[in-house]
């Protein structure tokens, strides 16, 4: 019985020794991503013993990383009894804090929520000197807006942004948010892209009933106002038709011969004239009636016709005006000598 008890004791000791020898050692995590603000032992080492995991200290800011070098890793493993395979002073572990990005769309929506006077209509909110912000992915209220101010006349607004979970760095925990808010309006936009020099027709533009983008200068709202005008530079589809983008396409140049027409109920008159200034389609310019030497104002119909409306008052031309007009004509064609 005594011998049998000794053997049982030796066998039991053998089992214990075997379990120690064959226990699985921890392995280093060369890179890990954490979601909380605290670094744990398991963020550095995998395969820890049950109950061995514990917090080590504060983690990096959302989106940032920290590195733990070999000497520090050895010290941590020694302090917490981690049996670590392949221990080396050259080892390195990188811990990155998970994050989500608060972009321009997020802050524009936040501004709108804080300005109920904007109503439910479409607006555009352009942020100035904006930089995206990294926050914890599980933070339900990562930032708060304070002191929101909006000048409805100019559209300028400003607000102070505070982190919901301060990091302790005053330069990162709050900043000024500024920009411009544009209310929606009805205007013309380009239906498709056009290169510089294109002459616009009705098929090149369309009405946007609720355009909310930034408009730096006068914008057109009617197709009739821009028909026949020329694009001064390339434009893209959907952009507003602005005064600065266009110039009137010259159909009639100063000195060009033209037919003057006058129409009224029961009356239709024509006369020979000569333009005194450049004019585009639909533009009103002055023209000399060659037969009467009177100056009238009419609307450019095409490259060779000026239409004078009822109520237009002709004025006499002086000798200087006539000489300025006929001098280049004499050089151009002897047939024009009849105008003297």
UniProtKB/TrEMBL annotation:
The keyword Manganese is annotated on this UniProt entry: no
Keyword set, alphabetical order: Cell projection, Cilium, Flagellum, Periplasm, Signal
A Pfam family the protein falls into: ChapFlgA
Signal peptide: 1-25
Family annotation (Gene3D superfamilies): 2.30.30.760, Antifreeze-like/N-acetylneuraminic acid synthase C-terminal domain
Coiled coil listed as a keyword: no
Subcellular location(s) per record: Periplasm
GO biological process, one term: bacterial-type flagellum assembly
Matching SMART domains: SAF (SM00858)
Residues in SAF domain copies: 185-247
Entry's Gene Ontology cellular component terms: periplasmic space
Name of the protein described by the UniProt record: Flagella basal body P-ring formation protein FlgA
